[in-house]
Fold these 4 entries.
Entry 1:
Amino acid sequence: MTRLSTHDAIIIGAGPAGTSVALTLARRGWAVAIVEKRLFPRRKVCGEYISASNLALLDRLEIGDAWRASAGPQIRRVGFFSGNTRVEAAMPPARAGRCADDGFGRALGRDVLDTLLLQAACSAGAEIFQPFWPVAIDRDGDMQTVRIQASNVSDEHTMLRAPVIVAAHGSWEPGPLPSQLAKTSRPSDLLGFKAHFIGSSLATDLMPLLVFPGGYGGMVFADHGRLSISCCIRRDVLARLRGNRLPEQDGPKENGHLSAADAVCRHLMSSCRGVSDVLEGARLDGPWLAAGPIRPGIRACYERDIFRVGNAAGESHPIIAEGISMALQSGWLLASELGGAPTGQAGREAAGRRYEATWRGLFSTRVYAAAGIARLAFCPGGPALMRVAVRNLPQALTLGAHLSGKTRRVPGFG
Ligand SMILES: Cc1cc2nc3c(=O)[nH]c(=O)nc-3n(C[C@H](O)[C@H](O)[C@H](O)COP(=O)(O)OP(=O)(O)OC[C@H]3O[C@@H](n4cnc5c(N)ncnc54)[C@H](O)[C@@H]3O)c2cc1C
C-alpha cells in the first residue's frame, strides 16, 4: 500500500541541522516534512557542548528559554588534560545575548536537546515521519519524490513529494541516498565514543580537551549533573588496545577481546591523569555509545538538486566542539536563503550558490583550524609537543577557542 503526501520541503534527519531548517521554514509558512529514522528521545555520540554564539539563534527558534532552563553550568574555563599535564585558561566570552548570563556556552544532553528542537518543529507545523527512512529519491518534473518506509521488512511505503529536499542525515552512516557518503574502513579512521557519568569531581565551569595516544576527546558537565565524556580514537589503535589486553585485566569481553568501550575507557584513564582523577568514585549513567567513522571535511552544500546542512554539508574535527553550532547555523542559513528565493529550479540553484558561499565564509576557518589541531594531536611526538606548548602558554587555549568560532556571531544577528 502506498500513501502520497505533498510538501514544500522534505528534511531527512532530525538532528540540530534538520530541525533548525525545518523550524525556520515552517515558521515562514512552508509545508515541511521531517523524516527521522530513530525514535526520540535517543542518546547520541556527542560531547553536547553548545557555544554561546548560538543563543540568539536558539531564541529566534523559540527554544532559548527551554535551553537555558535545562542546560548544564556555564563553561568559563577551557582546559587541557594529557598525560600528567592539567592546564586551564579562560574561555573567551561571546557578546552577551538577551540575558546578561548569555556570554558562556553550556552543555545539554542530546536526548534532551534534539527532542526539544523536534517538538518545536512539530508545534510550528512540520509533519514528522518517525521512525521512517528514505529508500529512494526520484525526480518528477519540478518536484522530487522520496519513498520512505517504516522498517526494512515492511512493504508499506509512503511517497513524499516536494520541490526542495534537504539532507540533514549527518555524515557517519552510509546508505542509498546520493547525499550519503560511501562506507570506509581504513586504519586511520576515527571512531567516536561517548558516555555519561554521575558523581564526577570535574570543576563545573571547566571543559578540558583530552589528548592521548591515538585520539582526542573532551569532558563537560551537561544537564542533571551528568558528566559528558566523549572522544575519537583511531581504528588501528583501538584494535591494538582490544587485542593487547593483559591477562589480569577484567571487563566485558567480545570473542575473547576487551569490549571496545571498555578498552577506550581504560585507555583514557591510563593515559590522562586528569580523567582518572575526576572519574574516581563516579558511576556510569547508561551504556557507552559508539559511532563513526567520523568524516571531517567540506562537502558540496547543494548537489544533484539536494541541499545539505549540518555534518552532511561539512564537518570539523570534534576536537573544537563546534559541530552542533555548525548544524544549527547552517540550517538557519539555508532556510533564510530558501525562504526569500523565487520558486522554480533557477531560484533554488541561486539560493544554493548563495548558501554555499555563506557557509564557506562562516565555517571554513574552523574546519581547517580543527584539522590542524587534530593533525598535531595524531603526529608522533604531537601530544608531548602540545603539553609543552600549553604548559608554557595557557593562553593558547583561549586563542584556540576564539579561532574555533566560539565567539563568532551568526550573520543576521547583529
Ligand atoms: C566524539 C564526538 C564529540 C562531539 N562533541 C561535540 C560537542 O561537544 N559540541 C558540538 O557542537 N559538537 C560535537 N560533536 C559534533 C556533533 O555531534 C555533530 O557535528 C552534530 O551532531 C551534527 O548535527 P547534524 O544535525 O548534522 O547530524 P546528527 O546530529 O548526526 O543528526 C542526524 C540525524 O539524522 C538521522 N538519520 C541518519 N540517517 C538517516 C536516514 N537515512 N534517514 C532518516 N534519518 C536519518 C539520525 O538518526 C539523526 O537523528 C561531537 C562529535 C563527536 C564524534
Note: The pocket of flavin-adenine dinucleotide is lined by residues 12-18, 35-38, 45-49, 133-134, 168-170, 173, 175, 192, 194, 230-232, 294, 310-311, 315, 318, 321-325, 327 (CB under 6 Å).
Entry 2:
Amino acid sequence: MSDAIDPDRSGAGARHALSRRKDYGSEILNESDAAADPFAQFDRWLADADARGVYEPNAMVLGTVDGDGVPSSRTVLLRGFDERGFVFYTDRRSRKGVALAVHPTATLLFPWYAIHRQVIVTGRAVEVDDAESDAYWATRPYGSRIAATASRQSQPIASRAELESRVAELEQAYPEAGEVRRPETWGGYRVGPERVEFWQGRTSRLHDRLVYTRSRDGGAVGAWGIQRLQP
Ligand SMILES: Cc1cc2nc3c(=O)[nH]c(=O)nc-3n(C[C@H](O)[C@H](O)[C@H](O)COP(=O)(O)O)c2cc1C
C-alpha cells in the first residue's frame, strides 16, 4: 500500500478518503411505500437520481461469470427497461459477450452514491432481437457507429494508430451515417430480473434493504414478493 492511500502513514488521519465516515440522510425505504413491482420502483428511483443530479444515473456495473467461473465487471449504459428487463448494447464478441454466451446470468449494479442509494438486478440475459438492435443503432451518432464498427472490443491491438487508421478507412468508405450498418456482432442484451434489491442508506449504518423476487408456482412465473433484509 502506498503512502498516498495508507491513512496510518499518510498523516492525513480522518480527512483521508479511506477513513471518512459519512452518516447517511433521513430518507427511508418502507414496505408500505414501495411499488408493487421492481420496475415501477426502479422508475421512481431513476427519476429521483436524475432529478437530484446523479452523474450518468443510467450507468450500471454489469457483472458476468465466464466458462472458468471467473467473475468480471464493467460499466455499461442502460438504454431502456420495461417489464421484460433492462437493456444495454455492446459488442457480442467482447469479454462480457463471450461470458454471457456460456453463463447467461448477469448482475447490474446502479451505484448512486451521491443520493445514498444502490440497486442490484440479478437475472438472465438474452439477446435483443435484430429489429430492436437496429432501431437503437439508428439513434447512434455517426462517430459512435464508426467506432463500434472499427473496434473488435476486448481484443488486443498493437497501437492506437492502428485503430485510428481503421476509423479513417471506414470514414472514407462510408461518409454518411446512414451507410454505416449495424455489425451483426453488435447488439443488445436484455437482463430479465429474478431478483432486484433496493438499498437506501440510513443513519448509523441501519440501512434499508428491500428485495423483490418472483414467486414461482410450479414453474410458472408468479407475482413479485418483497422481503426486507438486514443491513
Ligand atoms: C460510463 C461508461 C459507460 C459505458 N457504456 C458502455 C456500453 O454501453 N456498452 C459497452 O459495450 N461498453 C461500455 N463501456 C465500456 C465498458 O465498461 C467496457 O470497457 C467494454 O464494454 C469492454 O468490456 P469487456 O471487455 O469486459 O467486455 C462504458 C464505460 C463507461 C465508463
Note: The longest strand covers residues 186-200.
Entry 3:
Amino acid sequence: MRVSVIGCGHLGAPHAVAMAEIGHEVIGVESDPGRCEALGNGIAPFFEEGFEDLLVRHTASGRLRFTTDLREAADFADLHFIAVGTPLRADGHGYDMTQVIEAVRSLVPLLNRPATIVGRSTVMVGTVERLQKIIDADARVANVELVWNPEFLREGHAVRDSLLPDRIVAGLTSRQAREAVEEVYAPILDHGVGLILTDPPTAEVIKSAANAFLTTKISFINAIAEVCEYVGADVNMVAHAIGVDRRIGDGGMRPGIGAGPKDVTDFTHRVGELGARNAHGFLTAVDSINADRIPAAIRLIERAHGGPIDGRTIAFLGTAFKAGTSDVRDSPALRLAERLAERGATPVIYDPEAIAATRELHPEFGYADTAEQAITDADLVVLATEWPEFTADPELPATTADLVRHRVLVDVRNTVEPGPWLAAGWEVWQLGRRPQRP
Ligand SMILES: NC(=O)c1ccc[n+]([C@@H]2O[C@H](COP(=O)([O-])OP(=O)(O)OC[C@H]3O[C@@H](n4cnc5c(N)ncnc54)[C@H](O)[C@@H]3O)[C@@H](O)[C@H]2O)c1
C-alpha cells in the first residue's frame, strides 16, 4: 500500500520505518528541513532503540523516502498518517493542537482522489469532530475518510511497539475506512494482534483513559510509598504482594519520578471543561500526586545526604525521559536535575544517549563521558533514568566505590537491586523504603 506519514518526530519516524518494514511504500513528510534531510540520508536525528537500522535499510531499499512537500505525499499515497506534535500548552490547560489542525487543513484540499486520513497524534477529546468539519468543508473529492487510531507505544521501545503493539484501536465510521485500516495493518494483524474497532470519540477517550490509568497506578504507589515512609514499611514489597492479585497486577507499579505531565494534565483539564465532576476530582488528585514526585525525590536526596545540598556535586545518572531514547522533553529526570541546580547543587550528568540534548538546554551543568567519570569526586549519586548500564552492570558498584566522596546512592526510580551496592559499601536510598546500609 502507498502511505504517507505526516510529521516525522519521535512517533512518526519510527512509525514510518515500521510501515516500510511490513511492506508498504512510504513517504514521510517532515516540515523541519534539517530533520527531513537527515532522515532521507538514513541518519537518525534522535536515538530510539532499533530505529536507525531500519531507517538505513529502508531508505536504501527505496521503500521509504522523505520530503518537506505535502503535495508530493498527497499525490503519492492513499492513506495518510498524521503524527505531528501536540505539546502541552504553556499554561498547562490542555494540548496545543495547532500542528494537527494545520496538517489536516493543509492536506485535505490537496487530495485528488478518495483517501483515508489516519490520526495517530495524542489529541484532546473532541478533536476528531473538529477535524471532520475541516474535511467536510475543504475536501475537493468525495470519500476522504477520517480514522482515529491512537498510538500507545512506549518511548524507548517505539519500533518494537509499532511492529508488535498490544492492540490496534481504530475509531471510524465507514466501510472504506475499515477496509483501509485492515489493509494497512494486515501483516501486524496476521501476527495475532487484536484490532479494536469503534467510533472516533471512543477511540479518543481510550487513549486519554489509558494514559490516565497508567499515571494513576504510578501515583497510587507513590502515595503508598509516602505511607511506607511514615511507618517504616517497604513499598517494593507492598507493590509486589498486591500486584500478584491479577485484578491489580504489578505492571507499572514502581514508585518513582515516573510519569510525564502530558499523560494526565490535558485529560484532567478537558474533563473539567466538559463538567464531568467526579472524573475531574479524581484526576485532579492523581495529577497533584504526580506533580509532587519531584519534591518527594528532593526530600529523599536531602535525607540521604543528611542536609541541604547547596554547594554539593551530585553525580546524576540519566536525564532521558526513559531508558532507550534520547528524548528529554517533559523528562522528570531532567526536571529533577534542574530543581537540584536551583538549590545550589552542581549536577554532573551522564546519560548514554541524552547528553547532547541535555547540554543544549543546560550548558551550565557538568557533564561526563562515563558513569565512572560522573561519580568521581561526587558527594552523592542520583540514579534518575533506568538505563541497564546503571541498573544491571554488576561491576558498577565496586568499580565506583572508591571514586565517590560518600558512598550514597539515591535511586529515584526504585529500580536497582541493592545487593551489589551494599556489598561494595554503598548506602542505598529508595522511595518508600528504609535506607539500606552495608
Ligand atoms: N513520542 C512518543 O513516544 C509518543 C507516544 C505516543 C503518542 N505520541 C504522540 O504522537 C504525537 C507526536 O509526538 P512526537 O513525540 O513524535 O513529537 P515530535 O515533536 O517529536 O514530532 C512532531 C514532528 O512533526 C513535524 N511537523 C509539525 N507539523 C508538520 C506538518 N504540518 N507537516 C510535516 N511535519 C510537521 C515537526 O517538525 C516534528 O518533527 C504527539 O501527539 C504525541 O503525544 C508520542
Note: The domain at 293-430 is CATH 3.40.50.720 (Rossmann fold).
Entry 4:
Amino acid sequence: MKAARLYEYDPAMNVRLKIEDVPSPTIDRPDEVIVKVGAAGLCRTDLHIIEGVWRDIMDSHGSLLPYIMGHENAGWVEDVGSGVTSVKPGDAVICHPLRTCGICLNCRHGHDMHCQNNLFPGLGLDGGFAEYFKTSERSLIKLNTGITPLSVAPMADAGITAYRAAKRAAKLLNPGDWALILGVGGLGHIALQVLNEMAGCRTIAVDREPGAQVLAKELGADKVLSGGPDLIEEVRQITGGGARVVIDFVGELGVENLCWKLLKNGGDLIMVGYGGTIEIPTLELVAREIRIGGSLVGDYTELVELMELNADGKVKMHQTEFALEDINTAIDDFKNRRFTGRGVIVPGAPSARRVEERTAEAVK
Ligand SMILES: [Zn+2]
Ligand SMILES: [Zn+2]
C-alpha cells in the first residue's frame, strides 16, 4: 500500500515525509480491524511529532522510525479479526484515536484516555496517513447513514478534543457569562459550534488570521478579536472584568501566559493546546480564585455524542483536502496557516488535488 512515513525528527521542521510502498497491516489479534482509510486529519500533534517534542516520551532511542503518523481516521472496514462481532467489512466507521484494553479500571470507568494499556496508532506506531490502517474493535464507531468518512475524519481527534473542552466549559457557564476561545483553527471552530449548541453563554473568538476571524463570525461568535497588544483591556471592556471560561487551543508562543489574564475572578482556564510553560504567581491563583486544568482528547462516548451533533447538522468540520501524495504540501500549508479549519489527507484522491476550504457536508 501507499503510505507517508516519517524518517527523522527535526526541530526546524524541514524534513519531508516519504511517500512509499510498504506492506499493508495484517490482523494479528482476534479484536483487530483493518480500516481502508477514507480520510485522515492533519493535526498540530503531527507537527510536534516531527519537531521531536514527543521524542523523549515515546521514542527516546529513535528506534520507532520510520513510521506512519495520522491519528484522526475514518474509512471503511476492510478486514476483521476472528473475535470481532460489531462491525463487518464495508461498514463506514470513525476511529477513536486510542486502542484501549477495556479491562483496566480506567476503561471500566469510561476514561478511555487514561487506559493503562493503551496504544495510540499514529504516535509511535503506524497510523492513518496510508491506504490502510489497523486499530481494534473497541475504537470504532459506525457512521450514521449518509455520513461519509471524508466529512468527519478530523472529528476523531480535533473534534472530540474541542468537544470535551467545550462540554466541560458549558457546564460552568450561565446565560450572560462570556466564554473566550483562543485560536480558531481545526479545534477552535468546533468548540465555538459546540458552545453555541450546549451553553447559553456569549462568546469571544480570538485569532490573528483574517480567514479564521471570518470563519468565527460565520459560526456565530458574538465578538471576534485579532489578539493584538490590547487584548486584555479589550476583553475586560467587553466582558466587564474578564471571561468566565477561557479555552486555550494554542498553549505556546506566549499565549500560555496571556490566557489566564483574560479570566474574571473565579474563572476557569481549560488548556488544550500545548508546548509552552505557564508561569503564574501563586497569589494570582489564590486572590483571584482562578482555576487551571488540562483537557486531553476525549472519551469514546464523547465521540459518539459529537457524531450525533454532526449527524443533526449542528457541528460541522471546516476543512481543506489534500491527496496523500501531497501531504508535505499540506504540512507546509498548515505550518504557514494557509488554510483555516482542518487539513485532511485523502488517500484515495489523485495527486495535486486540493479541495479549497469548505464546510464538510454529508452526502444524504
Ligand atoms: Zn490530533
Ligand atoms: Zn484500559
Note: DSSP finds eleven helices and 17 strands in the chain.
